[in-house]
């Protein structure tokens, strides 16, 4: 039976969709529908004169896609995916924009993908008077497309949906959210690894039992904070899951090295002192979220690497133990004592020294009049949105902490928003925005709010919309990340209006820059906000930032993961990341058999992958010739690599590495070829460049005119090549195979086989020479340039 809502003699509504209310509002929300699918749609939409009567409908539950629309003052938001806990839900709450998420429509027209949505221009009404459920109604005369939808693939079965709902409600289907879940997880632990009371205890290495208990607790803790966000869906602007997989995996291969280098430089007491910065300073990225991230990310990244088959469970696993020990010392500085996670503190995060709270109270301004409240709320939303966009739609740009109790029974919540990060190439170097803005929100005694601050520095309240309860605020800007606390500036309402305008201008320009990026540029930029962004504040505080950029690749994606890009973006990330979030299966324990060196069984695997890498594509027989591994073993290895999606097989003959196959190869090479070997091979490579130029000229001359002196010229090149290969063979015996193969090709050419010089894909001298050249580049880790020929 159709549910018809009559609003006037001429307008009737019927419920056409049900979803989840972001925050409660007693009044119905009416406006006209507008479907937005691409960044270009958004930019064209906000170019209209007035969008205040528009309820936008979007696919995903991400924030940044709608940046410009939120700033433009739309009437409401409806999404097909996502949850109120998503970033878009949070920002709608901050702006005071009513929203209903994960709506399933029963009537409407079709999008290009076949989804059902109300037609553009249809009058809508949102009922957001209750949580968790909200409804979307449309006028009864709205267009309806009843045509059959061509399925894009198998949908989710009721059983699968029920399983996901169970995983959202309880970790592993067993452990609940909140303090009840914390009690269960702590009861499983026999160590105090997540406490920092004992100063001397922090100066030793952790046991495997301790780090494994920490990993187990963090899998629940991350689920507790992020499970709902794992279902937020796709963004029309930023490929979130692809960059998350890339960035987090890169953390596993980089953070242990970076953090060990930092602690070796500043010492244990220096790491503790770095943590104390988060207590002494506002506008600091040495905060709960960044410490939580560097505690979690290496383990999560290791889980991704295992999923991709880049290595086995034992490989370098003890680096997790070392890394968590270092992070624990930074936590000591942040908290001084007690447990290190807010989930263990009843979700209270009193981070700042108390004199800051006293200062906020002395500087606060009232929101008693509506004009002041509106000025604050618009500034607050614009600043948060700018911070989210600059940090590619993740929480690293915003940090909530508190509640801090007040003597009168009220409390304060504090939020840092980071608006101008010079480390990011997409940031405007001439931006007028400060490094950060800090907002202290005052709530009077008796405020009917239940407040929780989770470890990702995000506040959640019940009721969800806390803004009507804010009585006073104090707002401060910090010009740069290292600006002393006596240089911060307190903002009045006019200052808030100015900052809001600057944020809106800068975010609109940034939106355009991001929209113009290629997909790979977006993925790599977002990944850097994780891999470099998690550690960047510690690097700066240690004084090692420039050194880590120059010598350790701080602002680059690790080569193993960069090589795996095509695999990660092929659909792997969009399936893997939500699953790992929901199940906690990223949290693999550190085994007693952990090792740093290559496994014995991987020696022939590396030889086979190396042959494929330098040849590009090859038959099993060719791989055997190049690698020196028996044909039978080559065939077995290649079959296993194809099964693991590390190699492809074309026409049942030719093998080639996939993205993750090349990543695995680079990782095995990193372990198999030491620095001294690379340096010695580099010396011989420099000798190789001269005969390389001579041979290239010979090959070119032969292909255009077959000069009469070709045999003599080849003999000269070959003599020099054998001398160089003698030096290379003394370093690594496998190079002798090139001597044998090149000599065979040279002999065939001297014997009258003209194809033996340059004919492609025939084991000609040119084929083998090119393979040798690629081998030298791969072994030395060099990228080909003009000097390499």
Automatic annotation (TrEMBL):
Which named protein is this?
PEP-utilising enzyme mobile domain-containing protein
Instruction: Tell me which Pfam families the record gives.
Output: PEP-utilizers
* Domain PEP-utilising enzyme mobile residue range list: 56-105
Fetch the InterPro entries from UniProt.
Answer: PEP-util_enz_mobile_dom, Phosphohistidine_dom_sf
Q: One GO molecular-function annotation for this sequence?
A: transferase activity, transferring phosphorus-containing groups
Q: Which domain of life is it from?
A: Bacteria
């Amino acid at each position: 039976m159709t549910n018809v809502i009559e609003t006037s003699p001429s307008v009737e509504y019927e419920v056409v969709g049900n979803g989840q209310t972001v925050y409660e509002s007693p009044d119905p929300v009416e406006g006209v529908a507008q479907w937005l699918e691409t960044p270009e749609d958004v930019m064209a939409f906000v170019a209209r004169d007035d969008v205040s009567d528009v309820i936008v409908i979007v696919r995903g539950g991400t924030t940044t896609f709608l940046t410009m629309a939120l700033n433009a003052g739309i009437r409401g938001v409806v999404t097909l995916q996502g949850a109120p806990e998503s970033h878009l839900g949070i920002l709608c709450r901050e702006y005071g924009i009513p929203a209903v998420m994960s709506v399933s429509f029963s009537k409407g027209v079709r999008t290009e993908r076949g989804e059902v949505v109300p037609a553009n221009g249809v009058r809508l009404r949102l009922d957001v008077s209750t949580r968790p459920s909200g409804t979307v109604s449309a006028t009864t005369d709205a267009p309806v497309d009843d045509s059959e939808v061509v399925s894009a693939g198998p949908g989710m079965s009721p059983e699968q949906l029920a399983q996901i709902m169970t995983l959202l409600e309880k970790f592993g289907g067993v452990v609940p959210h909140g303090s009840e879940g914390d009690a269960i997880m702590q009861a499983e632990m026999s160590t105090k690894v997540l406490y920092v009371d004992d100063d001397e205890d922090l100066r030793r290495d952790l046991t495997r039992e301790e780090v494994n208990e920490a990993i187990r607790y963090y899998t629940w803790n991350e689920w507790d904070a992020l499970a709902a966000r794992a279902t937020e869906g796709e963004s029309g602007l930023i490929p979130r899951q692809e960059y998350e997989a890339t960035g987090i995996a890169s953390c596993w291969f980089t953070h242990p090295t970076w953090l060990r280098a930092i602690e070796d430089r500043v010492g244990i007491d220096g790491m503790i002192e770095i943590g104390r910065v988060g207590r002494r300073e506002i506008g600091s990225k040495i905060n709960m979220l960044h410490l939580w991230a560097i505690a979690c990310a290496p383990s999560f990244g290791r889980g991704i690497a295992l999923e991709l088959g880049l290595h086995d469970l034992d490989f370098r696993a003890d680096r997790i133990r070392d890394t968590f020990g270092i992070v624990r010392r930074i936590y000591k500085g942040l908290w001084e004592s007690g447990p290190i996670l807010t989930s263990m503190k009843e979700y209270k995060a009193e981070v700042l020294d108390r004199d800051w709270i006293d200062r906020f109270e002395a500087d606060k301004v009232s929101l008693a009049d509506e004009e002041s409240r509106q000025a604050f709320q618009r500034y607050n939303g614009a600043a948060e949105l700018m911070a989210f966009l600059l940090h590619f739609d993740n929480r690293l740009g915003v940090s909530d902490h508190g509640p801090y109790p007040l003597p009168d029974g009220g409390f304060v919540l504090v939020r840092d928003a980071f608006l101008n990060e010079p480390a990011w190439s997409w940031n405007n170097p001439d931006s007028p925005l400060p490094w950060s803005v800090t907002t202290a929100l005052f709530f009077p005694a008796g405020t009917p709010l239940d407040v929780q601050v989770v470890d990702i520095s995000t506040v959640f309240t019940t009721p969800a919309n806390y803004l009507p309860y804010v009585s006073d605020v104090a707002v401060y800007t910090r010009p740069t990340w290292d600006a002393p606390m006596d240089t911060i500036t307190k903002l009045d309402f006019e200052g808030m209006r100015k900052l809001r305008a600057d944020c809106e201008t800068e975010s609109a320009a940034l939106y355009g820059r991001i929209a113009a990026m290629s997909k790979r540029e977006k993925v790599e930029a977002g990944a850097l906000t994780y891999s470099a962004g998690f550690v960047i504040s510690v690097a700066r505080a240690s004084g090692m930032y420039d050194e880590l950029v120059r010598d350790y690749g701080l602002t680059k994606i690790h080569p193993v993961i960069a090589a795996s890009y095509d695999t990660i973006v092929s659909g792997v990330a969009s399936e893997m990341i939500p699953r790992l979030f929901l199940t906690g299966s990223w949290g693999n324990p550190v085994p007693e058999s952990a090792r740093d060196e290559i496994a014995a069984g991987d020696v022939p695997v590396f030889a086979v992958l190396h042959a494929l890498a330098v040849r590009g594509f090859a038959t099993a027989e060719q791989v055997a010739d190049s690698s020196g591994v028996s044909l039978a073993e080559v065939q077995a290895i290649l079959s296993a690599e194809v099964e693991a999606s590390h190699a492809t097989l074309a026409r049942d003959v030719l093998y080639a590495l996939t993205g993750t196959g090349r990543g695995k190869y680079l990782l095995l090479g990193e372990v198999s070829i030491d620095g001294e070997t690379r340096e010695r091979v580099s010396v011989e490579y420099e000798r190789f460049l001269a005969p390389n130029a001579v041979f290239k000229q010979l090959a070119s001359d032969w292909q255009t005119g077959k000069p009469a002196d070709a045999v003599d010229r080849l003999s000269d090149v070959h003599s020099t090549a054998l001398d160089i290969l003698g030096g290379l063979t003394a370093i690594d015996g496998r190079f002798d195979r090139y001597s044998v193969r090149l000599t065979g090709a040279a002999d065939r050419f001297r014997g009258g086989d003209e194809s033996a010089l340059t004919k492609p894909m025939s084991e000609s001298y040119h084929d083998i020479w090119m393979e040798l050249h690629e081998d030298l580049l791969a072994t030395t880790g060099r990228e080909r340039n003009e000097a390499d020929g």
